[in-house]
User: Fold these one by one.
Assistant:
Number 1:
Amino acid sequence: MSYKIESKNLNLWYGDKQALKNINMGIPEKKITALIGPSGCGKSTFIRCLNRMNDLVDKAMVEGEVLYEGTNIYSKDIDVVEIRKKIGMVFQKPNPFPMSIYDNIAYGPRIHGLKNVDKIVERSLKDAALWEEVQDRLDKPALGLSGGQQQRLCIARTLAMRPDVILFDEPCSALDPISTAKIESLMDQLKEMYTQVIVTHNMQQAARVSDVTAFFLLGELIEVGETKNIFEKPKEKGTEDYITGRFG
Ligand code: ADP
Ligand code: MG
């Protein structure tokens, strides 16, 4: 299996509290990897290490490596902006900019001086399965969209930067079931083109959407494997207890 991203002996501390303990994990290319585990086990912390988003949101000390296509993104000479362009992130709460639908998508491409912004906007909205719903009101405020539409807009905004990895941190937990189903089917469509990682506390969601599942507990990676195996014949007792609902 070829890995797009790989963490090597990754440790992370918030002050003196260690939130990630020696995580060694590969993120397979053009698959969907789900991160599951009880609240506070380090899922968000880990996914944010995959594009150094934790530089922006956490005061944390990191040791170890995160290799993206073989390059350690934590080494000193790395252009973090470039990394975040290639490895985009979608958050729990949709966070469109307070501007028009069009400008939300065009924002990144304009900053990076990309050409054919109209085309990028259209293609990104189509790829995020939102075009049909918004093509007649591109100049309207993004904040007027429903929550589910806003989340697809945020995905479109990520796609506009032509990433090759998309990280989702609980992308559906603020959404209704219909919007959730739309995001899940969108992820399935995006599989051909992108490597995806999703944090979810919803085990049914992990089972539905992912190819590979990783179970975290108290900052440790307990078990990772094909989703079917993790849910049907986990090797570790901790995994089994969690997926059968014995704690969580
Ligand atoms: P999860 O996403 O699995 O719920 P997190 O990665 O958010 O877990 O948190 C892992 C642990 O690190 C928790 O104990 C949490 O309280 C702590 N933590 C998370 N973010 C920060 C932060 N910015 N500063 C200090 N502690 C944090
Ligand atoms: Mg979290």
Note: Strands lie at 3-14, 17-28, 32-36, 61-68, 71-72, 87-90, 165-169, 195-199, 212-217, 220-226.
Number 2:
Amino acid sequence: MSEENKKIIYSAMQPSGIPSLGNYLGALKNWKNLQNEYNCIYAIANMHAITVRQDPTELRKKTRDLLTLFMAIGIDPEKNILYVQSDVKAHAELAWVLNCFTYMGELSRMTQFKDKSAKHADNINAGLFTYPVLMAADILLYNADLVPVGEDQRQHLEITRDIAERFNNIYGDVFTVPDGYIPKVGARIMGLQEPERKMSKSESDNDNNVIYMLDDLGRAANKIKRAVTDSDNEVRLSPDKPGISNLLNIYAAVTGKSAEEAEGEFVGCGYGEFKKCVADAVIEELRPIQERFKELSSDKAYIDKVIKDGAEKAAYIANKTLRKVQRKVGFPV
Ligand code: TYM
């Protein structure tokens, strides 16, 4: 298919920590797999990240590291656009316009806002509240058809669609109304110690709960071996076996199988042996990524160039959409 006829994929990730295995299986692994079939645009959402306090030096480092990790996974900056959100001014400008087309009531219903305000009760800032509007601006600036994300972003995609449709109803077909692309397996990886809660790169107090993509591999294996299970020693998918079901999901997402196929492989297998298989699969997946990350990280000039080129390519597309919106709402353009 020619480049022009390919559909557009857009997604982003916050540089709020080293990505977890959840981020990888719910999003990044699919981002890589989609790059041949679609025109893909992937961003580092550093403007979203400052809705909670960040150390500035750390944030700059994490931003570069995340972009490097995108490439280490195999996302090709020549075929796709990889860029840093704050490098493209159109995001902030469109977000302002869209704020005026979004209702307080809609934003108050967002579960992420409720969760994050409970977690950061001393800093419930307006940015945290309007977070989904900036996310809608991200997606709509690039006329995205599909947005590959994990399950926790579903509500944000719905509000993006609502905002786009509302704007289009007033001004005509300005925005492409995007669809979510949520994988069947891996869209909701749970904590290893708390399998009732999602695995999170930024919100966990217990290091054993999360596998980070750059964890020492021996340590990652140990985290899996220590994962919470239950006492009946049967490897089976079941709502009352959240720990085992989560490990089966991890294994399935890593190996590209369905959860049921994974379950079938481990009939009659004890927990110890099962955990070892899961750990081996995860480690073999992470090993080449970590090696590539190390290599790429040492090439500072190359990373600088990818960041600069990405910003230019992204800004070109984003500015076109922004101008169209500004014209529609009556700004002198
Ligand atoms: P963020 O940075 O929290 O997460 C990045 C991606 O990882 C997915 N994810 C998970 N998937 C499976 N299991 C988990 N435990 C898990 N934890 C996280 C998320 O669903 C997401 O796809 N608001 C977004 C960033 C963003 C964005 C956008 C995404 C900003 N602008 C525009 C799409 C389009 C976020 O905080 O993701």
Note: The domain at 207-294 is CATH 1.10.240.10 (Tyrosyl-Transfer RNA Synthetase).
